[in-house]
Hints:
By secondary structure, the chain is α+β, with helices and mostly antiparallel strands. The chain contains 1 helix and 4 strands; from the N terminus they run H-E-E-E-E. Strand 2 and strand 3 form a beta hairpin. The chain starts with 7 loop residues before the first helix and ends in an 8-residue tail after the last strand.
Amino acid sequence: MKQRGMTLLEVMVALIIFAVTGTAIMKSATEHLSGINMIEELTFATWVANNRLADVHLEQKWPLKNNLKGSQDMAGRTWYWQQTVIETLDEDLRMVEVRVGLNEDGTSSVTSVQTYIAKPQVVKKT
């Protein structure tokens, strides 16, 4: 008599292979989605920091104010920034660092962006 079909052992081995494969695929997909979320947060946080640095450049105030804090709404979230001004060896040049995160208390930041700002020059009219 010829057997048709699969034995219980063959079915169990096939199910184990399917379960391991499915688990690996789900893990890979989850890591991919997590990575996309991190890239999205980093992108928006960098935009917020760059917006703040552009504002500092446009204000043209001297001396620059240190330890400023603020917020900006972007992409349906409120992003909190902290501005730090650091003196350089040149008294007419300052480094400005802006840290951006999702916590108002500033305990964790998503990104930090720095730039240098020179003292605005006074143009004399003759």
